[in-house]
Amino acid sequence: MFNKRIRIKEVLGTEPQQQEITVMGWVRTFRNNQFVALNDGSTNNNLQVVLTLGEFDEALLKRITTSASLKVTGILVPSLGKGQKVDLKATSVEILGDCDAEKYPLQPKKHSLEFLREIAHLRFRTNTFGAVFRVRHALAFAIHKFFNDKGFVYLHTPIITASDAEGAGEMFRVTTLPLEGAPTTEEGKIDFSQDFFGRSTNLTVSGQLEGELGATAFGEIYTFGPTFRAENSNTARHLAEFWMIEPEMAFYDIEDNANLAEEFIQYLIRYVMEHNADDLAFLNQRLLDEEKQKPQAERSELDLLQKLQFVVDNQFERITYTEAIDILLQSSHYKKKKFQYDVKWGIDMQSEHERYLVEKHFKKPVIVTNYPKDIKSFYMRLNEDGKTVAAMDILAPGIGEIVGGSQREERYDVLTSRMEEMGVPADELWWYLDTRRYGTVPHAGFGLGFERMVQFVTGMGNIRDVIAFPRTPKNAEF
Questions:
Q1: Pairing state of beta strands 241-250 and 317-320?
Q2: In DSSP terms, which residues pair with 221 in a beta bridge?
Q3: What is the DSSP string of 67-132?
Q4: pLDDT of res. 41
Q5: What's the CA gap between 71 and 102, in Å, rounded?
Q6: Predicted local distance difference test score (pLDDT) of residue 87
Q7: Given this model, what pLDDT does residue 238 score?
Q8: What is the pLDDT of residue 110?
Q9: Are 147 and 462 in contact (CB under 8 A)?
Q10: Please, are residues 135 and 458 in contact by the beta-carbon 8 Å criterion?
Q11: How far, in Å, CA of 355 to CA of 376, rounded?
Q12: Domains of the chain listed by start with CATH number
């Protein structure tokens, strides 16, 4: 059978007892016509394949170039070199795919992340991206495990929708109408009644509203899928297409919501620390090497592994929005005019404000609650003061907001008046309002941006480096 192979990660942990095994992978390096560093993506660590001099054809040896793919059968023996305990002494080598070493873009040297984004179809083959995407996989698996173990139902919410959950209006339209000569109404507007769905539709910005429908039947649900924002934000923390985890829970208030979100984040980090120790160690060393290039004052107090351990070991700080604004106003940062954006009650805090609270003031993740109603969405529960809503954001070191959520407004009359106040058409959301008409309950939920979570755990500085093929303004390559 062709694929009777053993993954290199498993081989490296095996005791050598002269057993015959078959491995397959790509050549990282080939030295002295004798030593092949072979990698199959299961780990960043290579298996050293030893070719005995004189036993292999010269024509074959010339084809063993960086990134050529090989099938190697041989005997597993103790390694004589440092850094590995096993070598594979080759008895047969088959080249599965040649690689022109001169044309191959990934030469065995250090490449910039910007360059690697231009060849995103090949960047998985580097150590950095190998580690990042194995961590991403582990986080995705841990998300499902966490909610499954708690009895949540995984609900697939629609990607094409007629509603705008955020009320932001920055959406990608979905249509089969022609770009030129689209049918129009008597008022001269595009006649969407002739479109595929018979109405205007767009790519979802959130599965939350549909998630609430599930929560009011199953008790607790979660969604985990792609979401889309047509924001023209060309920053290191924004994507036009990204993944969101959105749990919705009946019979939860804002405090229950915050407790679950904190437990969830700590669980994910703990899972990766346990299952991807090698990858995190590599990423930690990569960041330490980067830090050495910075002035002493700009270096982080904690390395990546220390930061992750700190988040796992400590309770998150909990403050109200009003307390957060007071802290910012009293800060020397504000008094010395170091903030680019103004600070006053009622503002939507910017990333610089959030990061100050987390990184300078508390030095740990912070849960901020009770935001002004005017800067939050219509579905968030109005507090008794009439000025704030039971909203909750979790702010993390390095990236600012990582979770956004709230207790949802379960009171029909309050919800409809909020919708009217904010210009949200009630007739289009009749189905959403039905959950408040028929057995309404206190309920809550939050959204965790998956890529921001991956960024936090891997320490990568740019969100484009934690998703396989980033979609950003003017960029939809691959």
A1: unpaired
A2: 153, 248
A3: T-EEEEEEEEEE-SSTT-SEEEEEEEEEEEE---TTT-S--SS---HHHHHHTTTTGGGSHHHHHH
A4: 96
A5: 22
A6: 96
A7: 85
A8: 87
A9: no
A10: yes
A11: 20
A12: 5-97 (2.40.50.140), 127-169+205-465 (3.30.930.10)
pLDDT of residue 109: 83
Under 8 Å between Cβ of 242 and 176: no
Residues of the chain with pLDDT under 50: none
Phi and psi at 288, nearest 5°, equal -60, -40
The pLDDT score that the predictor gives to residue 291 is 87
pTM: 0.94
Cα(345)–Cα(458) distance, rounded to whole angstroms? 34
pLDDT, residue 399, reads 79
Evaluated on CA atoms 172, 421, 223, 440, the torsion sign reads negative
Residue among 404, 407, 394, 396 nearest 444 (CA): 407
Q: What is the pLDDT of residue 164?
A: 66
Quote the CA–CA distance of 298 and 276 in Å, as a whole number.
28
**CA distance from start to end of the chain:** 34
Residue 104 has which token pair?
A: 């191959």
List the helix and strand counts (H, then E) for the chain.
14, 16
* Alpha carbons 101 and 208: distance in angstroms, whole number: 49
Q: Which residue has the tokens 């939350």?
A: 208
Exposure letters 94-124 (e unless 16+ CB within 10 A, then b) = eeeeebebeeeebeeeeeeeeebbeebeebe
Q: Which position has the token pair 């490449």?
A: 111
Query: By 3-state DSSP, what share of the chain in percent is helix, strand and coil, each rounded to 5?
Result: 35, 25, 40
Helical packing angle, 450-458 and 127-149, nearest 10°:
120
